[in-house]
Amino acid sequence: MVPKSQYPSIAAQLATASALSSLAGPVIGGGVAEKATWRWVFLLNVPAGLVTVALLYLSVPANFPYQGQSLSVAPTFKQKISRASLARLDLSGALLLLGATLLLVTVLLEAANQFSWYSMTAIAFFVLSGVLDLLFLKNKRIVTGEAWIGTLIISLLSGIPYNIIVIDIPQRLQTVAGISRLGTGIRLVPFNFMIALGCILINVFAMRTRIAPIYLVFAGSVIQLVGLSLISTLSSNDIMTPAPSVIYAWELLSGFGKGMVWGMLLVIPPHVVEHRDLAISSGALLRFRVFSGALGLALAWVVMNSYLASHLSHSFGSEYLAAVLQSTEAIKGFPLDVQRSVLEKFAEGYDLQMMILAAFTGLQVLCMGLLWRGKGQGGQICIVEVEEEELREGKEDETEKR
């Protein structure tokens, strides 16, 4: 839709739009869950999805991406739904990838809770997930290139902390500090706001300074690492009391660093992949981030469930422990002294999860080496050099016309 030179500005505009949803989502979700059942949170997405589809239908040109070209003809509706057109959709690949992901995430979420790691169910899920992954890769063309692989890995690692933070921080505040669902949604606003702000500012900064993305992604990763490390230092003794105000500063720090990383990753693919792979690479980048978010959340709960089971099993029977693992509301039925000891273990478990997030972010910093280009490789990736080439080509065309 737009030339490469405008990608940073378009990315900033998209970040502005996503800011509204990121800010409103936790607040609306918390308010709805507090006044009604949690299912309504998901049902609200139905009308929102219909509006989105309608807007896409009205705004995307009929002959996209060949609009404006005299030799191209917009296909009719019959042609769009023809067998030849539908054959271009990789339905089998989509189903294989979806099945592999669902099986892997399911076994990670339910292991050590509904069934053991060594049960036939867990083993079968792991094996089937691996088989589906192999079938998916069998007939696929693998896009190579060290810079592109590095971008994918960084996107994968950067997606892990997001889902855990937006779920664990509210749950920690509800469970340990006793804050309402709406209140926890409001307290998550600084984190999401800074992600959006970081995406906007980093793209504007990159356009004006022309600093190579590798340095900006590295700076964002370090800032994110510092913020997550600080969140993991929350005291496990501050239970049944309001959350310390310093958590908002750490949310701001973590969110801004993540926004810097995400903002830059959006504009790197056009400069590291071939033109024919541009659409696929953009989709893969977002897919890796979403997948890693689901995978990270599953891993976080494996850690939490295992930690609680090992530290509370000596104090509770299996029935009470299972009730606590299923719902934290069960804690309210315990005596106050028991509640306090259980909540301390929950707080320690949440801190452990944040330490794991910091470790993943540290690995993300190390993977920055995959984006490095020496002098023999043409120098570092630059997201504004295309603008200069386009201007130069435009001037040459004008000269030829004259």
Structural account:
This protein has 402 residues and is an all-alpha fold. The protein folds into two domains: 4-68 and 145-401, Growth Hormone, Chain: A (Up-down Bundle), CATH 1.20.1250.20; 91-140. The protein is built from 16 helices and no strands. It has helices spanning 7-35, 39-43, 45-59, 77-80, 83-86, 91-110, 120-138, 146-175, 181-187, 189-209, 213-231, 246-265, 278-312, 318-326, 336-366, 385-401. The radius of gyration is 24 Å and the shape is globular. Mean pLDDT is 78; it is low at 386-393.
Fraction of residues in β-strands: under 5%
**Helicity, as a percent range:** over 70%
End-to-end Cα distance: 29 Å
Order of helices and strands: HHHHHHHHHHHHHHHH
- The CATH superfamily of the largest domain turns out to be MFS general substrate transporter like domains
pLDDT average, as an integer?
A: 78
